[in-house]
Amino acid sequence: MLSIKNLHARVEAAEILKGLSLELPAGEVHAIMGPNGAGKSTLSYVLTGRQGYEVTDGTATLDGEDLLSLEANERAARGVFLSFQYPLEIPGVPAMTFLRTAMNAQHKARGEPEISATDFLKRAREVAGQLKMDFDMLKRPLNVGFSGGEKKRMEIFQMAMLSPRLLILDETDSGLDIDALKIVADGVNALRRPDRAMLVITHYQRLLDYIHPDKVHVLAAGRIAATGGPELAHELEREGYDKYARAA
Amino acid sequence: MTLSLALEARDLSQLPSRRDEDWRWTDLRGLIRELPAPSPEVSADLSPGPFGDEGQAELLVVNGRVWGDVGLLTLAEGEARVVRLRFVSATAATGHGIKLAVSLAPGAHLTLLESYEGQAPDYLADAALNVRLETGARLERIVLASDHAEGVSVSTASVSLAPGAGFAQTVLTDGARRQRLETRVEHPGQSAAVRMDGAYLIADRRHADLTTAVNHAGTDGTTDQLVKGVVADQGRGVFQGRITVSPGADRTDARMGHHALLLSDRAEVNAKPELLIFADDVACAHGNTVGALDEDALFYAQQRGIPEAEARAMLTEAFIGEVIDRIVHDGAREVARAWAAKRRVG
């Protein structure tokens, strides 16, 4: 599914990713853990095509297709979805309008027919019901005045509606109390499928009690410093990142 | 000094210049080197204006001449009406002016769908409205200015309110070679209420100036103002808003907001918000911001699959949407929404 080889990237003059390699097969969930400043968010922005993040070397492919040469919206249409650490507020654009615009743009990019208003509404009601979301929330401007938990739930809602192949969750646990965390994790777990891969970026092990990863990678100083099973997350929780930060 | 005086007296020195503080960003004397010939009388253009067939009646003004019944703008006690008022500049390289009176008896209710339509380049057009609202009368004025890119146009509305009257307006413009849309309100307080909104969407080398002045003379009056602008290319937007609270005008509640987005390095916004307060016990607030489109929001939309150009358009339209949502007349609000979608800049 996702294959990253020797990825180097910089933001302005600073090199943040320094030869990162990672294989994420379809059907698996991998966690990326690391100390602050290791390059976790940079990785998610480089993979999704944010401006200002310059790739200087290496490759990233999704099912063999080069991701790095595509615009951000083209990557989205190929099935790459980033759940933001801090989802943006978009005043004046109802959540439904935003999502339907996004969905139809993706359909158009893939040469599929537009989704009709009725079909969209039907699907939105279904998904909102599954996520125990108040449907009226979708009529409000996207994320405006939403609590941290509501914003994250709205991310999961968009994810479920857009049905991406590669999910990148950037610090999805930040700012969530334990109840909100469970709801978000349940939403993510419900999206696990053999043809879908997930990259869960997190600083703390907490989220991984609810979203069980197949593998855990430690990102330190711009590269993968260690890879292991779920037990690695517990080790990091006990011993911290010092060992890896020093080794780098 | 006004364009109207210059046109009447055929005297260039009557044009306001950058030396007049109120006109420093909308210099006419430096722009106009000679006065054009007076506009000819041409027959009324019958194609529909930007408000289509909204409302019950139309008053057409072509090249400064009225076609129709000016009595449409005079409402008797308790009367209610929706009128399209169209100012059309039809002839290139000519100049014209018009003065009209709008008069609402007590309790009357007028919705004025006012349009400025430039059908030829290089005109000088002046329009002056004298508006009087008696006790309890209400006027909602929606102005849609679609001047020619090479037109020069000045519109001035002088509004005086009786206690308990309500005046609400929304001015929408995409500018002209030089254009000023000015509104002056004499506010008596005493439960009279004013809303003065505006939106400008400027591209190319166009210029639009939204100038307003409200003078609160009595107690317990409200003014609520929201003006938003989006300027691209080498466009220029001007906002001058002055709210004066005269001595004794206690318990005035006045709020002014002006927010603009600059979409290019060469776009320009000149803003002068002024609150002049000479009374105690008032609630006055103003906010003024000029900035770029939120890059984080832009990336967020792109990440969900929306191409950059479409994402920019969506965000700017939403930005202006806040002004349009406040239009009360349903038909006019939809016309305004369509206008904003079509005039997408940047």
Your description of this structure?
- The complex is a heterodimer of chains A (248) and B (346).
- Chain A has 248 residues and is of the alpha/beta class.
- Chain A has one domain: Rossmann fold (3-Layer(aba) Sandwich), CATH 3.40.50.
- Chain A has helices spanning 40-48, 72-77, 95-109, 117-130, 148-162, 178-190, 231-239, 242-247; strands at residues 2-11, 14-24, 29-33, 53-62, 65-66, 80-83, 166-170, 197-202, 215-220, 223-228.
- In chain A, the strands form two sheets. Chain A has a six-stranded mixed β-sheet, with helices on both faces. A four-stranded antiparallel β-sheet of chain A has the order 2-1-4-5.
- In chain A, a hairpin with a 2-residue loop joins strand 9 (215-220) and strand 10.
- The longest helix of chain A is centred in the middle third of the chain and has 15 residues, at 95-109.
- Chain A is globular and about 55 Å long.
- By secondary structure, chain B is mainly beta.
- In chain B, 13% of the residues lie in helices and 46% in strands.
- Chain B is built from four helices and 19 strands.
- Chain B has helices spanning 3-9, 295-303, 308-324, 330-342; strands spanning 37-38, 57-62, 65-67, 74-75, 80-89, 94-104, 109-118, 124-133, 138-146, 152-161, 166-173, 178-187, 193-202, 207-216, 222-231, 236-245, 253-262, 268-277, 283-291.
- Chain B has a ten-stranded mixed β-sheet with strand order 3-2-5-7-9-11-13-15-17-19, with helices on one face. In chain B, strands 1, 4, 6, 8, 10, 12, 14, 16 and 18 form a nine-stranded parallel β-sheet that branches.
- In chain B, strand 2 and strand 3 (65-67) form a beta hairpin.
Task: Record the SSE blueprint.
The complex is a heterodimer of chains A (248) and B (346).
Chain A: E1 2-11, E2 14-24, E3 29-33, H1 40-48, E4 53-62, E5 65-66, H2 72-77, E6 80-83, H3 95-109, H4 117-130, H5 148-162, E7 166-170, H6 178-190, E8 197-202, E9 215-220, E10 223-228, H7 231-239, H8 242-247
Parallel strand pairs in A: 3-8, 3-9, 6-7, 7-8
Antiparallel strand pairs in A: 1-2, 1-4, 4-5, 9-10
Helix pairs in contact in A: 5-6
Chain B: H1 3-9, E1 37-38, E2 57-62, E3 65-67, E4 74-75, E5 80-89, E6 94-104, E7 109-118, E8 124-133, E9 138-146, E10 152-161, E11 166-173, E12 178-187, E13 193-202, E14 207-216, E15 222-231, E16 236-245, E17 253-262, E18 268-277, E19 283-291, H2 295-303, H3 308-324, H4 330-342
Parallel strand pairs in B: 1-6, 2-5, 4-6, 5-7, 6-8, 7-9, 8-10, 9-11, 10-12, 11-13, 12-14, 13-15, 14-16, 15-17, 16-18, 17-19
Antiparallel strand pairs in B: 2-3
Helix pairs in contact in B: 2-3, 3-4
